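Render Small ribosomal subunit protein bS20 in 3D.
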Amino acid sequence: MANSPSAKKRAIQAEKRRSHNASLRSMVRTYIKNVVKAIDAKDLEKARTAYTAAVPVIDRMADKGIIHKNKAARHKSRLNGHIKALGEAAAA
């Protein structure tokens, strides 16, 4: 455990930051899960709506450094690919 006053303060700040970042990471996962649920239910319109809501959140978390920018791009790309495939299946 920290002994000096400055080390104690840093420990408190680190814990506060950790819990805030965990909350933001959880929010991103929830938005992604909403898109995945809509895709699994084969509901194209709901999937598109959930995707358009998720993209700015994913980008914001990548900008803040909560998730890596490549991970954000990968999530967006894969979700969009699934939605396109769902649209093509519905059209066929």
